[in-house]
Amino acid sequence: MPVPVIMPKFSMTQEEGRVMAWLVAEGDIVEKGDPLLEVETDKVTMEVEAPESGVLRGVAVKEGDVAPVTAVIAHIVLPGEVWRAEPVKATPVAQRVAAAAGVNVGDVPAAGKVRRQDVEAYLGKVRATPAARRLARAQGVDLTAVNGSGPHGRVQAKDVIGPVVEEKAVQPVSAMRRTIAERLTRSYQTIPHITFTVAADMTAVTDLRRRLNERGDGATVSVTAVLVKVCAWALGRQPLVNASWREDGIQLHEQAHIGVAVALDDGLIVPVVQNAAHLGLAAIAEQVQDLTARARNGRLQPADVQGGTFTISNLGMWGVEQFTAVINPPQSAILAVGRTVKQPVVVETAVGDELVIRPMMKMTLSVDHRIIDGAVAARFLQDVVAALEQPDRLLW
Predict the structure, then answer these.
(1) What DSSP string describes 193-222?
(2) 94 plus 166 within the same structural domain
(3) Active site residue 257
(4) From CA 306, how far away is CA 274, in angstroms rounded?
(5) Are residues 228 and 333 in the same domain?
(6) Number of structural domains, the chain?
(7) What does the alpha-carbon distance between residue 121 and residue 132 come to, in Å, rounded to a whole number?
(8) What pLDDT score does 164 carry?
(9) Using alpha carbons only, what angle is made at residue 265 by residues 262 and 268, rounded to the nearest 5 degrees?
(10) CB atoms near residue 249 (< 10 Å)
(11) Residues 75, 193, 253, 369: which is the catalytic one?
(12) To 10 degrees, the CA torsion angle through 180, 185, 187, 192?
């Protein structure tokens, strides 16, 4: 009998998934393990593979639609079997619209019962997200006249908003953006934030990176990669910064799993470098480069974004000199990193103070004041600055 394709559950907290794209069409032959579709959760976009070899039939969830986990979204008809679709359920209005247009309502793709908008979408042959269709109906926009900016030309909500200038237009949010809003609001409401800012002389790091990258025998060593190594070392010296608040006490994490914030078009995601204290700088650089690339291409796995104990958010590459970041619960701290700027600095020499120009980088540490007091945060930042200013001695 046909094998169901179900909406997978990628994490313990996931309740639904959004079909971003079908990679094969209904009626196509697929092999077991072939990628069938892309599904977006609140954290990552994942490919779903064919559970068996056969023919894809009975696609029940369109691109852009949401389905609960474990829901049947299609079937794979095995070789030699005949596909007999279940009787189509449709609203009376949908049946009338389909009949008037000479369309078999059974050919109309829909998530569950076929409704009028499903038939109209089928007739229009316009690939559009549900949010875009709602906006188009509300604003009287003809979707056939809108150029879609999404995958395969799919019309997005922003495409509909574009040609219709209306101050009160509301742009729907993605599952990722909604999750970010909920988590950060809860973080600010429940965690007493306190922040500390320091500046580090990046002369030695700049020289170290130049020497390593000139070799050309591995991934590019970025400032972020150096910071991952430095922070992992410093967390070992200040374990309260590598901790989580619990109702029954403070949980101290044995390993330093460093999250690296990556900006995306529709939000932010934090892949994690696991056991960073036990990795060399070259290995960390390779992981940071790989995780960042896969984050921006929507190819992270659930395990890539789980288990972080500390986060680094670096906006230096965007020209930001200093900022404050919100703690990513259940972590107790996050380091906000600005760009490196050449500045005049007074240094002590054998003959007295001297004014020199040095590349300086500001960092702001946000901590959970329930766990971390000012002295602990200050010692952690002292360790970070010391390691950045003498990386050869402290990192190898």
Answers:
(1) EEEEEEEEE-HHHHHHHHHHHHH-SSS---
(2) no
(3) no
(4) 9
(5) yes
(6) 3
(7) 11
(8) 41
(9) 35
(10) 9
(11) 369
(12) 150
**Amino acid in the structure at residue 226:** V
Query: What's 174's DSSP letter?
Result: P
- For residue 11, what are the domain limits? 3-124
| Cis amide linkage into residue 239, ω under 30° from 0 | no
Which residues does residue 354 pair with via DSSP β-bridges, in sequence order? 347
What residues have CB less than 8 Å from 375, skipping those under 6 apart?
none
Q: Cβ(286)–Cβ(218) under 8 Å? A: yes
**3-state percent breakdown (helix, strand, coil) of the chain, nearest 5:** 35, 25, 40
For the stretch 85-117, what's the b/e string if a residue is b when 16 or more beta carbons lie within 10 angstroms of its beta carbon? eeebebeeebeebbeeeeeebeebbbbeebbbb
Distance of CA 355 to the CA centre of its chain: 44
Give the Cα separation of 200 and 362 in Å (integer): 6
220 close to 285: Cβ distance less than 8 angstroms: yes
115 and 98 in a single domain? The answer is yes
Which stretches in the chain have pLDDT values below 70? 85-88, 98-107, 111, 123-127, 130, 133-134, 137-138, 152, 162-168, 393-396
Read off the pTM: 0.67
Tokens describing residue 309: 């104990």
| Residue found by looking up tokens 């997978």 in the block | 8
Query: Does 270 lie in the same domain as 142?
Result: no
- 242 with 380, same domain? yes
